[in-house]
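Long-time lurker. I teach an intro course on protein structure, and each term I like to show students one example going from raw sequence to a predicted 3D structure in token notation. This year I'd like something fresh instead of my usual example. Would anyone be willing to generate the tokens for the chain below so I can use it in lecture? Attribution to the forum is fine with me.
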Amino acid sequence: MPTHVHLIIWPENPTYDISTILKHTKGRMSRKYGEHLKNTDRKKYREYLVTFRGKLTFRFWQRGGGYDRNMTDGKAIHSSIQYIETNPVRSVLVEKPENWKWSSAYARVNESGLIPDHFNIPVLIS
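-- Reply from a regular --
Happy to contribute to a lecture. Here you go:
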């Protein structure tokens, strides 16, 4: 989506620290985008600068925790996936979920990109 990100993750380790996961995903994205803007569009870069603890800081993500939550049952997970995949359709960016090339629907139809190749996950079909 042009204005926001949806991400569903399944940690490899059953014992995980969500703050570390967020730091590595959101923090890295923010740093990379900040570096990119600093090198390509200084005016745009300055639009993201805010004063934080008395210091001018690049802020890519909105303040607050977003809508992070743990999902523990299949119905909630499938419902979230369906909501995320149809989001570009509701936003009138594409006609069908699988036409949004950055989505799991697109990856599933094209049989690529959804699950990294190094995972060997058995699929149960019933």
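Some talking points for your students: The chain has two domains: 1-67, 71-126. The chain is about 40% helix and 5% strand.
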